[in-house]
């Protein structure tokens, strides 16, 4: 008799536990307040928001379709524990979608290729390079700088941002550097994957910064320290640090986190800066045969120009409380002509986005397509997707 009671009690406890777990399933609601569909914006969910101990066992499921979403966990502070989980929801115009937060195993997670990738490149002096499925970039380190200062061929002295013109969805960084190590300069030649024919020199390239004092733009030298934060199917991000540099009488201390998300043509630059309350993010004018346009209200600056046998658009986009105005700086000095977006520094930090769209990639056919993209991108960063937790 007692044995039967024990078994019955255990059975009831199991049923109660199962029901209780179902009742405690968390859900999030993602809301789009704009009048167009949004599908390549990254939602960041923290461990504290979800109230979970281990993000590695978290799955995100569309409550309507039951489809598990592709996710990526990120250790933002480098302590070995994951702090955020990322995913990119697809939300219709002026609508919302509910996602359930579920517990899953590693085997149950949706598989996705690592398309958002970055790394330090010691085999090519000390570049740092990053890419996603649309675009690729690189910046230059202290070895490349010292080579120039010591008169050694092959160095680069620049804090500008280089654009690598890819026209394929898959990663090209490792392939291009491998080709270049086998035959120096190979990635400068056209291929089915694209090419590197974008000149940076001492210009700002695609989003390098300057500090203006009187009528002169002052710039830093190459980055001195780097650290990869994450790579994955949704985002790559990394940290760069610079030696303190001078802008007239101002001593400028600069570091930054750069990130690039899946499906985006613009990298996010989170710049930590001391010594100035205003910076200028620049776009190289190359041969000065393109058109500088901008929209101060929307917070973007664009330069659309002929490029080789094609055309390319460069851009800076910043939040409305950050973007002040823009100007075209034209000088006879080599590589120093740039279009500049003037950006307000808030509490020693400024956030902006910079990138490009190459006509050859098939994404943009003319400057209007490019500017329409910038308009939408601006609306997205100024009206982010709203996330709320629903128990």
UniProtKB/TrEMBL annotation:
Pfam families: DUF4861 (PF16153)
Superkingdom, taxonomy of origin: Bacteria
Protein name per the record: DUF4861 domain-containing protein
Species of provenance: Neotamlana sedimentorum
């Amino acid at each position: 008799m007692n044995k039967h009671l024990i078994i019955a009690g255990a059975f009831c406890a199991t049923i109660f536990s199962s029901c209780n777990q179902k009742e405690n399933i968390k859900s999030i609601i993602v809301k789009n307040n704009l009048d167009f569909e949004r599908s390549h914006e990254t939602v960041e969910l923290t461990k504290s928001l979800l109230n979970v101990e281990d993000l590695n066992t978290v799955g995100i499921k569309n409550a309507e379709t039951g489809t598990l979403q592709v996710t990526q966990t990120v250790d933002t502070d480098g302590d070995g524990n994951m702090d955020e989980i990322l995913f990119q929801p697809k939300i219709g115009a002026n609508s919302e979608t509910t996602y359930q937060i579920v517990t899953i195993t590693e085997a149950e997670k949706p598989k996705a290729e690592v398309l958002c990738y970055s790394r330090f490149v010691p085999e090519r002096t000390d570049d740092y390079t990053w890419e996603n499925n649309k675009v690729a970039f690189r910046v230059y380190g202290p070895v490349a700088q010292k080579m120039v200062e010591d008169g050694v061929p092959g160095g680069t002295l620049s804090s500008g941002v280089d654009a690598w013109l890819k026209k394929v969805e898959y990663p090209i960084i490792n392939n291009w550097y491998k080709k270049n190590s086998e035959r120096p300069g190979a990635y400068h030649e056209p291929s089915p994957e694209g090419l590197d024919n974008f000149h940076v020199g001492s210009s700002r390239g695609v989003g390098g910064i300057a500090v203006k004092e009187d009528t002169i733009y002052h710039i830093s030298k190459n980055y001195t320290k780097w650290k990869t934060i994450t790579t994955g199917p949704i985002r790559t991000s990394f940290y760069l640090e610079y030696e303190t540099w001078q802008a007239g009488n101002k001593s400028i201390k600069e570091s930054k986190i750069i990130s690039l998300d899946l499906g985006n043509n613009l990298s996010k630059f989170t710049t930590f800066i001391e010594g100035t309350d205003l910076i200028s993010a620049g776009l190289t004018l190359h041969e000065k045969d393109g058109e500088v346009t901008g929209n101060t209200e929307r917070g973007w600056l664009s330069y659309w120009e002929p490029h080789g046998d094609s055309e390319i658009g460069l851009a800076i986009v910043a939040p409305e409380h950050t973007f002040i105005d823009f100007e075209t700086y034209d000088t006879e000095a080599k590589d120093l002509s740039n279009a500049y977006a003037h950006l307000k520094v808030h509490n020693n930090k400024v956030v902006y986005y910079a990138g490009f769209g190459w006509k050859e990639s098939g994404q943009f056919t003319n400057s209007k397509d490019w500017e329409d993209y910038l308009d939408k991108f601006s609306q997205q960063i100024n009206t982010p997707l709203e996330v709320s937790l629903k128990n």
